[in-house]
Design brief:
This protein is α/β, with parallel strands linked by helices. 31% of the residues lie in helices and 29% in strands. The strands form 6 sheets. Strands 2-9-1-10-11-12 form a 6-stranded parallel sheet, with helices on both faces.
């Protein structure tokens, strides 16, 4: 059975996911076969495995850092919020319907055997398991039937590193308070403290570190500096959503829908030299955009209502009429159509007229399509004509079935595993839509789109060609180097051995 170590945090977004990814890469560099694990994840940014199962993107990223293929066992339970009080529950990669927080809490204990079986099967195949917690273990109202923090640590007998985020302030109080709110046996599981996202001179911090060690009885394993690593983020707390896009030659506006999902679809665009990607939630922010993107959403009808109430729909119409292309992915594609209906209540029921930019009608269904897909773009008209025929690859995650009206032109021709090729999406008058997540990730697609948009502005982009695989490996390497230099890795190995 594998040795294990668990990374918990004093709060959400303390940096647990990236610390876990760094440890996965470090252990791999040191010759150990390593796998990530997170019992329960809550995120709208998900990933589809080769066998068509859905898991949290953070664990897919950690698997890539470990040099292995993502496996749904690495994240057996995924919650995708559909409202402020409810989520779609996905178990071992398959959707089990929507639950309110109260309903899920009542069913939670039944998921423990699923979590344990997934962990045990991974443990039998790997040398080290790097386990990520969720939120904070000091959420004492959630202690009963916990399957993701100290409850899981006890179940698999995992030692714990506790991470605090100094960038948001109050890190000493957060670390001390988290330790002291735990039961004695839970405190004993914490083998070290990590301060993350530090800016400045560590020597100035050292008196505080010594006092923290005295107060908690726990060693500080290290202080990780604040770093900008271009690695896919887990959820809407990601810093890139607050980025202004910068002063760039090409400006792409992604509409920041309230239930925005899979925003990593646009990472490849942001990595093209000269391109700025702005996540916009106010009409003024899209005024000078060269391209407007409507991204995926976990609540198509709800976010369509928000577009209208916020004034964003009217602003998009105005920009589109002035010649700005509009592109929709998954839920964004559905929103751009003529109608969206939910006869079975998959998203609460009802129907709405869409934006009418594409001649498409969508019906939401209980059955969820999750699959990896490849294909080619069709003969595109309008601004994106230079992309015609380019190869694309990605994945589909949707509960909607969209039908183009007679005479409508498809956007792409796709192929799923062991299925015949089919037409996907739609295009009409500088409006384009597709169900393919990752459509910009294939070699050359993001660069060609950027050059096309730049030509409309009368400018020429320059810079090295973007190699996604090489770039990703460089980012993992930078992250691992930073964490290895910042933490006492020998202490971490002793914790693993103990």
């Amino acid at each position: 059975m594998a040795k294990c170590i668990m990374v918990q945090g004093t709060c959400s977004n303390a940096g647990k996911s990236l610390i876990c990814a760094a440890l996965c890469r470090i252990f791999r560099q040191d010759g150990y076969k390593t796998a990530p694990f997170k019992a329960q994840n809550m995120a709208l940014n998900s990933f589809v495995t080769a066998d068509g199962r859905e898991m949290g993107r953070a664990q897919a990223v950690q698997a890539a850092a470990a040099g292995i293929v993502p496996d749904v066992r690495m994240n057996p339970v995924l919650l995708k919020p559909t409202s402020d009080v409810g989520s779609q529950v996905i178990v071992m990669g398959k959707a089990r319907g929507n639950r309110t927080a109260r309903e899920y809490w009542g069913d939670k204990r039944a998921l423990l055997p699923v979590v344990k079986e997934a962990y045990d099967s991974l443990s039998a195949e790997y040398d080290i398991i790097v386990i990520e917690g969720a939120g904070s273990p000091a959420e004492i109202n959630l202690r009963q039937d916990d399957i993701v923090n100290m409850g899981l640590a006890k179940l698999v007998d995992a030692p714990v590193l506790l991470v605090g985020d100094i960038d948001r302030g109050g890190v000493f109080a957060a670390l001390y308070g988290t330790v002291k709110l735990l039961e004695d046996d839970e405190q004993a599981r914490i083998k070290g403290l990590v301060i993350n996202k530090f800016r400045g001179d560590v020597d100035i911090l050292r008196p505080g570190l010594r006092q923290l060690e005295q107060l908690t009885g726990k060693p500080v394993v290290g202080v990780v500096p604040y770093g900008r690593f271009d690695i896919d983020d887990e959820d809407s707390l990601a810093e890139r959503l607050d980025s202004a896009g910068g002063a760039q030659q090409v400006r792409i506006a992604v509409v920041r829908l309230p239930r925005l999902s899979n925003f990593t679809d646009f990472s490849a665009l942001a990595r093209v030299p000269g391109v700025g990607v702005l996540y916009a939630d106010r009409p003024a922010q899209i005024k000078d955009a060269d391209l407007i993107i409507l991204p995926g959403t976990k609540n198509t009808l709800g976010d369509l209502k928000w577009l209208r109430e916020s004034g964003m729909e009217a602003a998009i119409f105005q920009q589109h009429a002035a010649g700005t292309p509009v592109f929709g992915v998954c839920g964004g594609y559905q929103i751009m159509g003529e109608t969206v209906s939910d006869p079975t209540g998959a998203e609460g029921g009802g129907s709405l007229h869409g934006m009418g930019l594409l001649p498409v009608d969508t019906v939401l269904r209980p059955q969820k399509i999750t699959t990896q897909s490849t294909g080619t773009l069709g003969m595109l008209s309008g601004m994106l004509a230079p992309l015609s025929g380019m190869a694309v690859t990605g994945y589909e995650i949707h509960m909607g079935h969209s039908v183009c009206r007679p005479g409508a032109l498809p956007f792409a021709r796709l192929l799923r595993a062991e299925q015949p090729a089919f037409e996907d999406g739609c295009q009409a008058e500088n409006a384009y839509g597709t169900y393919l997540h990752g459509v910009f990730d294939a070699p050359g697609v993001a660069s060609m789109l950027a050059r096309t948009l730049a030509a409309r502005r009368g400018v020429m982009l320059s810079g090295a060609a973007y190699d996604a695989v090489r770039y990703q490996e460089e980012q993992y390497g930078r992250l691992a180097d930073t964490v290895r230099q910042s933490l006492d890795i020998n202490m971490i190995y002793r914790i693993l051995e103990e």
